[in-house]
């Protein structure tokens, strides 16, 4: 099966490096700095061990024991219970549902995009909630005042994510 996810290109900046580290820790089980260094190198980001150690400290990454006993890095309050799922887990869904249930007024899919309408002023917050979750097939969001555009990797992913967002926002 071929991965059709577009390659993510990052500028060679400290902010981009920190983002890449955080994304790696949110989407993978990373057990060592050398493993993380290799993940970054695969993305074209070369980093020394000292810099990586400072970066992990800056984003408040901690070592956490997983359900299977493995010790891996986690970011902030994020707690990795098992392998990252292709779909958000029940805990993630519950957290998103709590936020989105009062803020999403409509959801529609258009090709590889999901358009989410919110009350005036809420779109930036809704977009940040979506962006902070490792949701397979979601590349990112763009927010205006009352509209969020969720960019998905493919048309069928957008349809599934639109339905999922609608279902999650409908839970009260």
From TrEMBL:
Pathway assigned in UniProt: Amino-acid biosynthesis; L-arginine biosynthesis [regulation]
Highest taxon of the lineage: Bacteria
One Pfam assignment: Arg_repressor
Main location class: cytoplasm
Molecular-function annotations in GO: arginine binding; DNA binding; DNA-binding transcription factor activity
GO biological process, one term: L-arginine biosynthetic process
GO CC, one annotated term: cytoplasm
Annotated keywords: Amino-acid biosynthesis, Arginine biosynthesis, Cytoplasm, DNA-binding, Repressor, Transcription, Transcription regulation
Subcellular location: Cytoplasm
Function field: Regulates arginine biosynthesis genes.
Family under the similarity heading: Belongs to the ArgR family.
Name of this protein: Arginine repressor
Organism annotation: Bifidobacterium adolescentis
